[in-house]
Amino acid sequence: MKNNSKWSRRRFSKAVISAQLLLASGALTIPFACTKSKKNESDSALDNSQQEILKLVMDEIIPANEKMPSASDIGSVAYVLSIIKELPDLSPLFQSLTDKIEVQSLQKSNASFSDLNKEERINILTNFEQTEPELFKVLKDFTYESYYTSERVYELIKYEPHPTGTSGPKMEPFDEKLLDRVKKAPTMYTKI
User: Fold this and answer.
1) Per the confidence metrics, is the pTM higher than 0.70?
2) In contact, 92 and 33? CB cutoff 8 Å
3) Which stretch of 1-15, 40-54, 86-100, 105-119 has the lowest confidence by average pLDDT?
4) Rounded to an integer, what distance in angstroms lies between the CA atom of residue 68 and that of residue 63?
5) Rounded to an integer, what distance in angstroms lies between the CA atom of residue 103 and that of residue 107?
6) What is the reported pLDDT for 41?
7) Phi-psi group of 75: left, alpha or beta (phi > 0 → left; psi -120 to 50 → alpha; rest → beta)
8) Using an 8 Å Cβ cutoff, are 143 and 62 in contact?
9) What contacts 106, CB < 8 A, 6 or more positions away?
10) Alpha helices, DSSP H only, in 62-186?
11) Cβ atoms 46, 98 nearer than 8 A
12) Which pLDDT band holds residue 69 (cuts at 50, 70, 90)?
């Protein structure tokens, strides 16, 4: 996945500003956000259970359909893990997100989030969006960013990325014949 290897200035700034806003807003005032992790550098920022919850959540935000892959199909979890590797201060944020979703799942349905069916997961996420709007927004933003910066999605939606400062794609000349029907139609407005 090529979009994981290079960071644009915009992408880096956005991630840093998001993290700073979350810290300033108090969204990261959870107890373990202020403690050192016992994991070593070879460990993933999220354990397998947290990664599974993140995968399921991202797939509810962007599910697959007959034409497009789901968020996890294009590697959204790997994308988030690569960002956490580059910006380890974001690790407590994603640990908190997944842990809070799991807690709500256990409280509301007496089952782990990964054991719920689609409808139950959507209910938990709807509740999470209402009770933790800042955290849900971060989750949603990272899901969309991971999805819509994927070269595979670019191809599927026929998006041609062009660097800032370039002329961009060439537009096809406008076909005036497309307006013939409208020009022949009677006036649909009141002339003043």
Assistant:
1) no
2) yes
3) 1-15
4) 8
5) 6
6) 41
7) left
8) yes
9) 112
10) 76-86, 91-109, 118-131, 133-148, 151-157, 180-184
11) yes
12) very high
Using CA atoms, how far apart are residues 7 and 16, in angstroms rounded to an integer?
Answer: 12
CA dihedral 126, 129, 130, 135 (to 10 degrees): 160
Both tokens assigned to 120 = 């139950």
State both tokens at 37. 């992790």
Q: Which two structure tokens, joined as six digits, stand for 10?
A: 């915009």
Measured CA to CA, the distance from residue 123 to residue 146 in angstroms comes to 24
| Sign of the alpha-carbon torsion through 52, 42, 2, 161 | positive
Which own/partner pairs from 63-72 qualify as long-range (CB within 8 Å, at least 24 positions apart)?
67/156, 68/153, 68/156, 69/152, 69/153, 69/156, 71/143, 71/146, 71/147
